[in-house]
Inverse folding.
């Protein structure tokens, strides 16, 4: 089964960084919205990383909209987190995606 989501792996200070592109609206000529399967892809990537004994050092938002914020203000999950110790990947996925919507909002904003 093929999932609609773009991601890349980059070297960052000697470590590997996984960059999952955001979901969004339709682009000209596309049949589907951009990365419309973001959630199942994130879950699958976390499961595969757990199978490979990966350690999550951090998860953060890296978009142009919040590029002026400090890394601390863009951080969704602080590590290190040994993924082999994560028994509920869906709960970790929820923690990541739930925090994304709050990045860049003033405290108390809805």
């Amino acid at each position: 089964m093929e999932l609609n989501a773009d991601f890349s792996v980059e070297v960052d200070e000697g470590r590997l960084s996984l960059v999952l592109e955001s979901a969004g609206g339709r682009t000209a000529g596309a049949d589907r919205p951009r990365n419309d399967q973001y959630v199942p892809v994130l879950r699958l990537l976390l499961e595969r990383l757990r199978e490979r004994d990966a350690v999550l050092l951090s998860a953060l938002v890296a978009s142009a909209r919040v590029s002026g914020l400090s890394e601390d203000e863009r951080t969704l999950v602080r590590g290190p987190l040994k993924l082999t110790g994560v028994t509920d990947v869906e709960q970790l996925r929820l923690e990541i995606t739930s925090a994304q919507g709050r990045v860049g909002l003033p405290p108390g904003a809805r």
About this structure: The first strand starts at residue 7 and ends at 12. The chain has three helices and four strands. Helices lie at 38-51, 71-74, 89-100. The first helix runs from residue 38 to 51.
